[in-house]
Amino acid sequence: MKESIGEQEAMNCSGCGITLQTEQSDLPGYVPPKALEQEQIICQRCFRIKNYNESSSVTVDQDEFLKLLSQIGNKNALVIHIVDLFDFQGSMISGLQRFVGNNPVILVVNKIDLLPKVTNWNKIKNWVQQQSKEEGLKTEEIVLVSAKKNQGFERLLETIATYRGDRDVYVVGATNVGKSTLVNRLIRDYSDLEQELTTSRYPGTTLDMVNIPLDDGRFIIDTPGIVYPWRFSELVSREDLGATMPENPLKPMVYQLNEGQTLFFGAMARFDFLQGDRQSFTCFLSPQVVIHRTKLERADSLYADHAGVMLTPPNQANLAKLPEWTRHEFSLKKGTRSDVFISGLGWIKINSDQGALIAVHVPRGVKVLSRPSLI
């Protein structure tokens, strides 16, 4: 039995990849000495996530994430970039192309199970292709999947087989987009290694590069998730995270609004219809986010009196932890169909092409933008 982990016999957590240590329980990679008797050793943080669904405040410096990504350009690699369809613009890795160099990229769009079953998937794929092109990302293929529902994986495996050759497979993505779930599926299909990565809905589950050997001598490399502060998933408390991130298919809510009306999305965001003809707006959000309609002239007082009580999530205790709101104004031109996207919270589809002047209020730092309609 090993009593400690010395520098010359460093081991890594089989769940998140961090280097294990037995000395300081408040630092990443801590494992109780008794746990070294196990054949598959996981750090205390992974143990708590797996057994108690408990997160940890341990994080890895953002600069370290970028250093790890910068190594890929010098490797013979097939890069799988996984993004969250629910938070597409919020989960794209900005500037990924400069990190990966000339290595081929497969863009995997996860959580398609959140959209209605009648969705035209060819249109979704074309939309993704156009949006990724605008981000400067060159992709060999775009594959739509649901890691939760195990949809689209046969197509993904075929695509990987087409482009992998003798390359290692690097899986990259922002936190909480389903990356480790996808890698676990790849392990089952490409390797006989009995290993499962730590999967959790909490951001930043994977703390270091995890190298999984394949049967042909190459590797699947799971990289740490990039933490983007403009996403609601990085701002809200643990108890509110489940409310803002939907796990079941979205049930779009349609509202007919006159100018001068406001929609509150819990106490997370506010949508003002400032000017335009009466028209409908469809809200794509988690069903646990309560939507409340009021007149624009009453919006400030309603928020002051009811935020965290009638307007939830978050509750009053967690509301104070969010940054103050900032206002974003959009003038939507006639003849265009647009969404107003709020990173990590969802989007509002403007159903008419009549044009409209709107404003969105969100906590400072949250990404808000207008885009061509997804659906």
UniProtKB/TrEMBL annotation:
Q: Which Pfam families match?
A: MMR_HSR1 (PF01926), YqeH-like_C (PF21516)
> Which residue spans traverse the membrane?
none
* Domain CP-type G stretches: 66-229
Q: SUPFAM superfamilies, from UniProt?
A: P-loop containing nucleoside triphosphate hydrolases
Gene3D superfamilies reported in the protein's UniProt record? P-loop containing nucleotide triphosphate hydrolases
Q: What is this protein called?
A: CP-type G domain-containing protein
Q: Which organism is it from?
A: Paenibacillus macquariensis
